[in-house]
Amino acid sequence: MDSVSCVLPDRLTKQPLLTQPNTPNDDSKRSISKWINIQLSRDYLLTEKYKYLPISLEGNDLFNALSDGVLLYHLVLKFYPEYPINFQPKYVQTSLFYKDENLTKLFAFLKRIIPTITLSPTNFSQTTTSTLTIVLGFLWQFIDKVFEKSLKRAIGSLNLSPNDYLIQWVNQTLKADGSNTKIFDFENSIMDSKAYIELLHHFISKTNIEVLRQSDLTLRAEEVVRSAATVNGTSFITVKDIITGNKTSNSRFVGDLFNIFTHPFISSEEETQKVTDHTLEKELDGIKDKETPNKVNLQQEIDKKKDELVTVQKEKKCKDIIDAVTKEHSNLDKEEKELADKEDMLQEMNDVLLQAKAKDIKEERENQKRLDDIKHETRGAELALKHSEEEAQHKQTITQNLIINKESEVASIERLQNYTNEEVQQMTLEVVQQNEELKKNIESLEKEKGETRKQVFQMEIHTEELSNQLKDENLRFERKRRELERQQEMAKESVKRKEALVSDVSKKIEEVTKATDLLISDVNEQKSDIVTKTDILIDEQDTNKQIRKDIKKGTTQNEKMLSEIVDLQTQDKTNIKNLNQAKIETNKVNKQIKITNAEKQLVIQERQQVESDAEAVLEKTEEVSQRVEEIDKNQLDAEIKYAQLEDKLVEEEKQRNAQLALLTAKLSGDRARQEKQGKREIDKITKEARRLKRDEKELSTKKQLLEEQLRVNESLKKDTESTLKDCEERIRMLNERKDQHEQSEKEFEVTMSKLQAQKKEINDKLTAINAERTKQKKELKKLETVKEIQKTLKEDKIEEKNISADLLEKERLRTERRKKERAERDAAIEKVTRRSKEKSQAATQETPQDISESQNPTILALKEKQRKRDEERKRREVERAKK
Question: Could you give the percent of the chain with pLDDT greater than 70?
Fold first, then answer.
């Protein structure tokens, strides 16, 4: 075949070579030329009459043979008989005008087979080095489409790609032959040629299987090429391709072997029909050369009479078809009205959803403003707490000063032991007054304690209410989860229904395709109508594919909803944990609450303000959750309506498919008589299909809007959850501050206990002083008796012999001690008078506490330290404000 070339004069002209030898383009040119020679070797017109074949493997013979489109025309007739071509090419044309005419008509038809075709007629009629790769690429694409068609018929309902099916076919044939070898791809698994040799030996007994004993891979590959050449299967393979593991060439080689050994394309009947057609055409050509013009005229008259008879039969059948079409038009009008009503309902739903979106956006803005206000209030509360802490420190210093004053008072009391009885009584009265004041302070503190306990009890009640509210929210979340699960089940059921409908539609499509194939073989005059209807069926297949994609999208959306439900459950668990922690903390706080100061009222008021803010936030969150529930309900209603609409559309599609089946059954027997009316009906059906497609697109857009609303609602839920978390963190901070205040209260209690202990010590000392006073009174009485005795003795001038010396010494010591005590008392009285004067002068300007502080140097030092701390604190606050 390589030495023989075509006898066309156009192809005998010497031209510069378009492909250089030993290049990839030259190899592809050779393999395509081989394949065309093999596939069209039985065509009488191409081999004997017009001498298009065989194509030479050398030079530019392939491109010259393809320049007028005749070879492509015959390839399409062979491999795609179900797509009839409505024109007859002009053979053996040398002018570019007729070549381009053939190619333009052929390319318009080839777009049905290869929609991505981007060729122009000049690429084939005038092939150059720049357009060479485009032509070869198109030819390879056509060959791959031919292989895909044969493999799709063989694959059937199996979910396999063409390469996977070819690998499975090779492995099954080898297994049936008793071999253990398997291939997994067309690269590494076939480089040793073992699988190819065993496969060819299974179909061709002359294959030398003993070559496998040799380790030389080239010898094995040469044996594969030799044995495949016996069945014309070496179009796409070379020794180099096998050894290097070229994936594309090996897959094409195995596909070619599959077509050769299984014969899926052309049956024996079709071949005989084609041979008879060629012979008839040959005979007709001879007869036409011998016929006279009179016979031609007679033939024309006969054709006219036949046409008249056909028109009469058509008119009779057209009446029946018109009646059926009018009924179908009425049904279609009803369906159009129903679809218009559905569109109105969907528009109303969209308006409602848009209004809900606008309300949600307004509420989100209001919530954000409220949250900002709450943040400002919390900052103010934090500053107030800082001020209260500073005041507590100031009061601690005051208590220390009081302790110091008490110590000084104790020291003064110790000094006053030597005072007179009247002065001591005055001091005791002052101490009693101070004790009464302390008792009053203690009673006021106890009252405050009772009030704080009442407030704590109210706080416990409030926390219980909050816990109940959170339980209610958890119950609502569980209800929502159940509703979502029900929706998921409904969606799964709808998906199953859609899958069943898709399977039914695919079965109907297969039945229609079979019917159309049978009709095409019988009737050649109705090829144009059948082509249009097959195009409609292809469009239906595309719609079915889109439906499957929509089903997959629905399943992914259901999976997303499941993941969202799991997230909600986890959030509920975290909320429950936070509640338990809050309860534990409240219990701890209730256990640790004890006596508080008068300053605690300010802290309680601030806390009440913060709690009222938190309650407001919780109420806002409850309102937001209620709105989210309302939106979810509206969304559920919309989804239910959408599912109902989908079910109605599916039922309408079933009815339409049934109507199409009836129409095809009616038209199958009388297609020749119903050409014009069939076209009209097909146009109407195409319009309806387009209308359905538009409806499906509108529904998909509405579905996307609903999904966006779901996302917005989810964002609202997340925002509310974040606000709840912020409130919980604020409560935690308040609890920590409460603990700090309680610690300060404990310290104050310790100081109070110390003061009470000191008070007890003072009371004990006072009791001791009183006891000593009683003793002194007794001794004074004794001394007075002794003095009276001495006076009597002096008056009587009696000697002091009878008086004991001890008594005299004691009396002398007592007199000296009394002198000292009198001197000390005089000094103390002067001090007291001086102090009373100073107090009377400073009463208008200072309090008694300030007087004691001004007199005590330790208090002055503490005040100075406190002043320095205040200055440092102010300086730090200024620095923070600047930052």
Answer: 53
